[in-house]
Amino acid sequence: MIKIGTTNIYLRLGAEEVKAAYVGSEKVYPNSSLAVTGALAFAAAGGSQSLSIAVEAGQVWSLSGLPSGWSASAASGTGPATVTIAAPNNTSTAARSGTLTVVSDGLTATCTLTQTAGGKVYGTPSVSLTVADIPASGGTVSAGTVNYSQTWTWNGVAGSGGTLTTGGSVSYSAAVSAGSLGTTVKVRTKIGTLTATVSMNGQSASKAADVYQAENRIESGSEEDLWNRRITPKMVITAQPGSIAANGGSTTFKAQLQYVTTYTSGSTVTRYDTAGILARSSSSNFTVKSPGTLDSDGRTFVFTVSASMNGTTSARSATITVYGAAAYASDISATVSVSQTGQSNTATIRFTDLSGNTITEIECASDGLLLASVPVAAVATPLAFGPGNTQFSFRVVPSNSAMEWMMDAGNGTYFANNCGSFSCTTDGTICYPTMAAGGTLRFTGQQEFTGMFTGAAGASFTFYVRYTSASGNATLTVKGT
Known about the structure:
Layout: E1 2-4, E2 7-9, E3 12-13, E4 16-17, E5 21-23, E6 26-29, E7 34-36, E8 39-42, E9 47-55, E10 60-64, E11 71-72, E12 76-78, E13 81-87, E14 96-104, E15 107-115, E16 120-122, E17 126-130, E18 139-141, E19 145-154, E20 162-164, E21 169-172, E22 176-178, E23 189-200, E24 203-213, E25 218-220, H1 223-227, E26 234-239, E27 249-263, E28 268-272, E29 277-281, E30 286-288, E31 293-294, E32 301-307, E33 316-324, E34 333-340, E35 347-352, E36 358-364, E37 370-375, H2 376-379, E38 380-382, E39 389-398, E40 404-408, E41 413-415, E42 424-427, E43 430-433, E44 440-444, E45 447-454, E46 460-464
């Protein structure tokens, strides 16, 4: 091109445009020029920069070679120009480069294009934390349920990345602990705070959550539950009765009407119904005072069982049933067995002089056989006023004061007035038996005897004890004391 004034003139040979013409060694055609910016460097996030194209006025130019995804504000033009080159966000970790080429009137110029490697930019994590309550029974909370998310971009360009919900590292602050509430009724209460920290991709964030201990309440076993029969109380014998002696007497036993209160914590408390406890006996031989008497502890009822003398050698017993006095506990019961011993199958009779000095002591058997023969000589001294006559004095002491016993004194035995409480008739100062022929006497308890025996000094007093009924004057029945 030859520019003359404002007119561009092109040389042709026929139909072909002349590429160049020279005068000597000096090029005279075309007289075009071309220069461009030599290099453009872009950040990883991309952006725009200006490419300067210097040509002669009226000189046509075009550019090519932009990397994929890049753009130019103009791909061709006439005359000098400034073209805006735009590089996109580099979403890879590799650097980019390329060469842009501008062509004009057979002239060529290039611009080197570079872009730094892309990189991911991570935001601060968003964290949520929920924790379970510490149970009323006590425990420790050292962790919870953590949810988190983290957004990221390429090179900080919004919308160029995504969101992560995994891959983070979770740590917790010191654990929060609480002991059992036991039987303390308490509403849900804040105990402390637990903090979770999530760390990921060089960023971290924390979230705190309040830790509570669950409510502790009565789950079952309230007084209302008792009254409405939603729980079943229990009758408990806390002290067993003893045995009543054969001679009669009393014994005691103790009972409690218990029910159990259970708390959310799992703790239980035994409580006591003091509305009253009644008792009944299965045998008329035993009487029980009902209702029982509340003991000093305020929860135990004491019952007294009594029995009169057992007149047999066999033990006897009864069942005492205790049950609740209140309607809601009338069918709650327990039983105890109370017993009374029978009379002893043996008894001891001790023979003493009137001063209490023991002459002899003999244990009777239960077979009703001869118990003892005490020689007259052991308790007597001959009388000076009559040959063959013997004066005696002695005391019989049975071990059981209610025992009935017999003494066969034999014919010719006379007793003084202080012979005891048995029946006799008095003839002057002599008392003699009238209960049975042959002088068989029946006694209970301790007796003293003084008198005279009109016979040989070798005679004896004979004693009998029998435990079972038999016929004849030799029958002795042991009665209970």
